[in-house]
Design a protein that fits this description.
With 287 residues, the chain is mainly α. The chain is built from twelve helices and no strands. α10 packs across α11 (233-257).
Length: 287
Amino acid sequence: KLWYQRRVREARQKLKADPTGSCLVFLLSDLVRATFIASTSYSDQLRREGLSALQMIINVFCDTLDPDYDNHALLEQYQAQVGAALRPAFEDDTPPDVTSMACQVCNAWISSGVSRDASDLKRIQQLLVSSLQNLQTSTHELIISRYNESTSTLLRLSVLQAWAEVYVRAHEINAQDSAEEALDLLSTVEAHESYLSELWMSAIRDHALLALPPSFATQLPPNGGTFYCADTIDSSRPHYRRTWPSILHAAAMWLNKHPFRKEMDKITDMTNEDRLFLSIGVAIEAL
């Protein structure tokens, strides 16, 4: 209690000296502790809100340097808590909306560049790998079936969005001549990029179909798309609107990286030429 009161006094003194500054940094350890407790609680709603708060903390403090260690982020000392808060969200009995939020936190942590520990990054990357593997298993289909189809769409698109943003981030780091830092990210994503590219294009095609005017409703697949069901079209549209820009960005980078070929993909039944026209069409329609 005395330590907390001292922190509050320090924050108030800083606020008086610089009214435009932020004093939350003095309570960062308490914020991380609170989000960890919430993220690992027994209440699914509290877990989701705890993960959302953790993502906000990462985004706000990722560029804050540790005053005691030169060129080290302040959040670097909390990487164990971040990993421990995320792991339960990827267990098989976790609701899809909680896992969806955890995917966003994984992406925020990896993309922030806070952690320089290769083993820590590998553990977080492995969580995303497990989420991708779960999308391919029939067991996970049974788990998702306990919830509504729209929630299933949310989870799948969140996983694909997280992978897409990590893919883009890895290539951005590599383009900045930080090859050593990008090596682990690139190797992780490139091991799955062929399968990911097909899923990304499937999601983009779904979005393009759902974005059609009502007069073209008869052209929608009667059984739904790759990631949505015909009965949940209206509730699935917001999920596609939130995730398609990141997915399209990653798909366009993949398309630019690989030579055009005529073979059909197993999932999308599209050649790279079809992918190009679909990507351009979605981008122009958004503009």
